[in-house]
Amino acid sequence: xxxxxxxxxxxxxxxxxxxxxxxxxxxxxxxxxxxxxxxxxxxxxxxxxxxxxxxxxxxxxxxxxxxxxxxxxxxxxxxxxxxxxxxxxxxxxxxxxxxxxxxxxxxxxxxxxxxxxxxxxxxxxxxxxxxxxxxxxxxxxxxxxxxxxxxxxxxxxxxxxxxxxxxxxxxxxxxxxxxxxxxxxxxxxxxxxxxxxxxxxxxxxxxxxxxxxxxxxxxxxxxxxxxxxxxxxxxxxxxxxxxxxxx
Length: 247
Known about the structure:
By secondary structure, this protein is α/β, with parallel strands linked by helices.
């Protein structure tokens, strides 16, 4: 198995995740993806670590042929049901994304929602090599992150809490080194006092380190945005969108 967060599908945690990433952000990201990468009906997109399919489903509704891959069976089943209901050109695959292989050739691969930062440097390199192998020449990779060093170091907080509807969401984080990473224990508390705990690791890479890993895979970093297609990334922004191209 790859070195990935010990995550699980859970109704409570999913609601927290949806609150962290509102639907409005997904709409803006998809509205950027379609014209920026010149996607047309019939274009092929690979969505790795697709989660519950917020991008995969939205793109498929535009006529894009999407392959969505995630390691969690519950997410994949949810996407399959939605795709079948709406008769979308969407293939959902449960797989360890590091081990995933396909004969398909894609116009674009996306790794959204900070998912690339779940992996250590060796696994990121393996994943990028795989991605490059099934991108067409001139094809692109879009990576969304809020854990690059230029963001994480400035915004790191040891403790935090939030309320989502009637749930309390508590986090306790440590910034560790060699390798640079943030280890976080998240606790969800329900109104009746029940708790659920999730632990995770975000590996921290600078933009330069990301570019070096892209280059090893035959990918060239073209741009880094903070607002997709509208504003180039600067220090202080809460998220980054890295765009690479297969040479």
